[in-house]
């Protein structure tokens, strides 16, 4: 099987044309990006509002219940309802995007809500004591602190979309899922395995990129990462300690001019 997979991947005809790997990969990435952007625009503000005000928690619970809905069944149901209303070549693409958005909303909504809701009340009180309005507290205090959970929800939603977009190929949506659907129809096992491997690689690479983004976006003070100490910092620390002398054993340290 491995030899057959390598042979399929090495075939130049599988890397050119509208059905080649680069074209299918581009379609898959495009669907994923569009879906995630729409879901972020809907779920993140809503989840932040629920976490900030404490109202509408039932929205988060209801959205999480959507995870129990079979993806393929929801895909066919919305395609049957919405598809006939669209008189264009997008008759199958738009229903698929709708389903992908619906499935991407729950992790984003939960992540943004949980992140904002878990902010220490003392931080909110301190911000209000400085004269910040409610919107300023949300955008300048709560959202930065909630960033780790929010980005974790983003990673989960993105992987969910990548996986479900593969199933959506069953209703004429493009992407890497076409290799699985077409391979199953033609009983071409190497093509099916190649499609599965490519989807898995795309998911791994995407999650790795988002993990790097999360590492650089989240403040070290929030993430708990230790900052590196350079030679200059060590020298400064040594000179500071050199200027500290104990007046007597067990007494408090006293800093003398010129280290004396």
From TrEMBL:
Natural source organism: Intrasporangium calvum
Family indicated by similarity: Belongs to the binding-protein-dependent transport system permease family.
Topology in the lipid bilayer: Multi-pass membrane protein
PANTHER family the UniProt entry points to: GLYCINE BETAINE/L-PROLINE TRANSPORT SYSTEM PERMEASE PROTEIN PROW (PTHR30177), POSSIBLE OSMOPROTECTANT (GLYCINE BETAINE_CARNITINE_CHOLINE_L-PROLINE) TRANSPORT INTEGRAL MEMBRANE PROTEIN ABC TRANSPORTER PROZ (PTHR30177:SF33)
Parts of the chain that traverse the membrane: 29-52, 64-86, 92-116, 161-181, 193-213
Domain ABC transmembrane type-1, first and last residues per copy: 25-210
Cellular localisation: Cell membrane; Membrane
Signal sequence, renumbered to the chain: none
UniProt keyword annotations, A-Z: Membrane, Transmembrane, Transmembrane helix, Transport
Name this polypeptide is given: ABC transporter permease
């Amino acid at each position: 099987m491995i030899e057959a997979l390598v042979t399929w991947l090495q075939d130049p005809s599988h890397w050119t044309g509208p059905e080649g790997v680069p074209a299918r990969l581009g379609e898959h990435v495009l669907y994923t990006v569009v879906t995630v952007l729409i879901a972020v625009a809907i779920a993140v503000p809503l989840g932040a509002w629920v976490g900030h005000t404490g109202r509408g928690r039932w929205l988060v619970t209801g959205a999480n219940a959507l995870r129990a809905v079979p993806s393929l069944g929801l895909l066919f149901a919305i395609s049957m309802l919405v598809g006939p209303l669209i008189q264009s070549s997008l008759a199958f693409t738009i229903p698929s995007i709708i389903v992908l958005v619906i499935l991407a909303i729950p992790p984003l909504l939960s992540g943004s809500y949980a992140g904002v809701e878990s902010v220490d009340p003392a931080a909110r009180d301190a911000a209000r004591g400085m004269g910040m309005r409610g919107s300023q507290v949300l955008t300048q205090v709560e959202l930065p602190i909630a960033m780790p959970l929010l980005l974790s929800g983003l990673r989960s939603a993105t992987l969910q979309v990548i996986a479900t977009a593969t199933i959506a190929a069953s209703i004429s949506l493009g992407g890497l899922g076409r290799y699985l659907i077409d391979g199953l129809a033609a009983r071409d096992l190497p093509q099916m395995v190649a499609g599965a491997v490519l989807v898995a690689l795309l998911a791994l690479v995407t999650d790795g990129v988002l993990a790097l983004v999360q590492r650089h976006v989240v403040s070290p003070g929030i993430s708990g990462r230790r900052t590196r100490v350079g030679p200059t910092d060590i020298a400064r620390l040594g000179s500071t300690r050199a200027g500290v002398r104990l007046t007597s054993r067990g007494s408090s340290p006293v800093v003398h001019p010129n280290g004396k």
